[in-house]
Amino acid sequence: MGLSLSGTKMAKVSGLRSIMEDIATTTSHTGGDAGWLNLSIGNPALIPEVQNTWQRLTADALADDFTAASCQYGPSRGAPVLVDAIVAEFNARYGWGITAENVVIGPGSQMLCFIAAALFTGPAADGTQQIVLPMTPDYTGYQGLCMHSGGIAGIPPRTEPGQGRSFRYAFDFDALEQRGRMGMMLLSSPSNPTGRSIDSAELARLIGVARRRDVPLIIDHAYGAPFPQIAATATAPPWDEHVINCFTLSKAGLPGERIGFAIGPAHHINAMVSFLSNSALHAPQLAQTVAARALTTGRLQEMAASVISPFYRNRRQTAEKLLAELLPEDMDWRLHSSEGGMFCWLWVNHAWFDDMALYRLLKTKNVFIVPGRHFFVDPLYTAGLLNHGKQCFRISLSADESVIGEGIVRIAEALRELRGAS
């Protein structure tokens, strides 16, 4: 039996599927003892204080809430205890004045982005409407959100040199304004993979585009404010009738529980609630009660500010030092500037360098990284992008420092071998 057109598209091996396969290799019984150095995984670091806090909160929820939460169905919008906690937190923190009608809880923020893509993009009466990423590179998982071919478009960045080995991407707003077939815009801020945070002027311009085109702007805050604060944010989450803000507890220490939530105008959020009802019924309920306890007690906010944010800021500083010490001095490699964040995004500006060649060679050295091309949208070669999409790669900072250090040593070896073979 053959697959449908959407089935064929969704069954393809994507960048995200490749990452998940690498995770499976390093955690399986056969691969887990093979000495893999996994610098590709997006798991949050195992921070003891964070783990212990979630364990205590879960134990309390199991004792007090298990029957009500896990032994019966719940509302598709989300458990009222968590919805109310979110409303109270964001009204107090940002003065938004939202109600429960502005909130939906989902099984992870990626699923919420998938729902938005299904609602706002795809075949329509006036033609196919696309997901538009205002700047690539961006999270590789976005490319699997649309169930039809050609459903996503990315705007290549402007590349700006920084001091020393650093560089930075900038929005090409002229190219964005000219983009047709726009059904919605979507970006992560702080960005996965670069850690770049959108500033207030850039945000205002993006919201302006969304208003003029009358499309939603979905902002994925998986790494930013108000939690988990893994990377520094240049501006607070915005409230606007054309903005849907997505948040998750994954990077705050609960990736396996799949709890995310979206906040936005009621007419968009209610459509997302209906979609969730028709697909997954609702998000896991026991995890929602745990999250509500974390919010109402203030533990989530405290962990983000005093534990998680300093941990990743220090980890980033350590990684920058190791990269400067260990990568070849006679190569033109550059690191995207960032304050904090879970990843380092590197650009090797040489014609002989290819991200997939590095990925394959590093696997022979028991190291996983993520090829940069997975974070761009085809075609990889454009007048503005040239070969840049194949000259980058991402490494994760959530592994132990010893793993990161040894991984960078092997990356340096691989770079020299690739150059020598050219």
UniProtKB/TrEMBL annotation:
CDD domains assigned to the protein according to its UniProt record, in alphabetical order: AAT_like
UniProt GO molecular function: valine-pyruvate transaminase activity
Residues covered by the Aminotransferase class I/classII large domain: 36-407
Keywords recorded for this protein, A-Z: Aminotransferase, Pyridoxal phosphate, Transferase
The keyword Transferase appears for this protein: yes
A Pfam family assignment: Aminotran_1_2
Transmembrane spans: none
EC supergroup of this enzyme: transferase
EC number: 2.6.1.66
Named cofactor requirement(s): pyridoxal 5'-phosphate
Coiled coil feature spans: none
Protein name: Valine--pyruvate transaminase
Natural source organism: Streptomyces ficellus
